[in-house]
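Today's session is about reading a structure prediction critically. Students often jump straight to the picture, but the first step is always the sequence itself: look for stretches that repeat, for charged clusters, for runs of hydrophobic residues. Only then move on to the predicted structure, which in these notes is written as discrete structure tokens rather than atom positions. Here is the chain we will use throughout the hour.
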Amino acid sequence: MKFISWNIDSLNSALTGVSERAVLSRKVLNSIAEINPEVIALQETKLPCEGPSKKQLEILNDMFPGYEIVWNCSVEPARSGYAGTMFIYKDSLKPKVSFPKIGAPDPMDFEGRIITLEFDNFYLTQVYTPNAGEGLNRLRERQIWDVKYADYLEKLDKEKPVVATGDFNVAHREIDLAHPDRNRNTAGFTDQEREGFTNLLKRGFTDTFRYLHGDVTGVYSWWNQRAKTSKINNSGWRIDYWLVSNRIADRVRRSEMIDSGQRQDHTPILLEIDLSV
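Below is the predicted structure for this chain, in token form.
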């Protein structure tokens, strides 16, 4: 099975925008469609709770015919049109869909950050992990989130194997970003966030990219769009992941980034895995 995950940073902009960046985003969506994955996970959709507009749905259905669409959204006390996640999956799959709350600090549980698909022999779940914030003003809450999220994945893993993906908002190791020295103790590369990710893996999960590619360097999933030369210079971070339960790690066939051309910000990530019984 092929799965793709992407922090799209505004579905509306990607589908209907007229800016140069929107055009690049649509090219990325078209490249995803060409791969013909079973499931697509999108983060930071920024949709209202009523979901995609009629026009947006028409575009999505044209791009991904034969797929179902489910989404999670930000509700009070969180602000509307913030965060949000979406799954687009082939309509032949028929998973059970849930929108879990994990007991995270308010308003994180109300920001539409997690969707889980339950299949007969595995769970597929995506997350948009909260950023530690400007000046690390949400680092304490982020640390609690990391514990609660690890608890949630471990609970799923006790029932059946787990495939987890999304924007985890952390570069786990120094080789997961281009300039660790100058970014130390900034959001996404604090000791606390890195330790949180280490503890998640210790609960019984495998970082599939490192599993297949070892300590390869210079491969990233995010480049700061505020710095015009970040992608040209490959000054990136690897903060988007495909994780699997340790007991199915040997079924992973591919775990890699998908080329997003000149578009900065996040690039999609691909997992190919044998999940046949």
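Discussion point for the tutorial: The longest strand covers residues 2-7.
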